[in-house]
Write a structure and sequence with these properties.
It is a single chain. Helix 1 packs across helix 2. The protein has one domain: Hypothetical protein af1432 (Orthogonal Bundle). It is an all-alpha fold.
């Protein structure tokens, strides 16, 4: 019963991750592909480390799916960036670039 409840919670958690990733995807033109690629490459990297036997004490117990799912949220702070900066075609000014870098602070709660 505990295993079934855990699977239900994980499915719900993944739906939340997916919904938040879709919000971020709507913020920028290339965000959707970037989010999918990040998830794919992180899963591949963690699986490769595990299968290669690197850091076996740590990697043998890794649940590759959780960090792969969580990786979708790495740019969620972009929802706090003005559209005029986030969707600007061409190069950003120094000030706009500084604003863009703030999306990391949003995720960490330092806004």
């Amino acid at each position: 019963m505990v295993e079934a409840k855990t699977k239900t919670i994980v499915k719900f958690q993944n739906k939340i991750f997916n919904a938040m990733a879709e919000m971020v995807e709507g913020c920028g033109s290339a965000a959707g592909s970037h989010i999918i690629d990040t998830k794919f490459y992180l899963r591949a990297l963690l699986s490769s480390v595990n299968s290669a036997g690197l850091w076996p004490e740590q990697s043998s117990s890794w649940d590759v799916d959780l960090p792969a799912q969580s990786s979708q949220l790495h740019d969620v702070g972009k929802i706090s960036i003005r559209d005029s900066v986030l969707k600007k075609p061409g190069q950003l000014t120094d000030e706009q670039y500084d604003e863009m870098k703030e999306h990391v602070r949003f995720l960490l709660g330092f806004h």
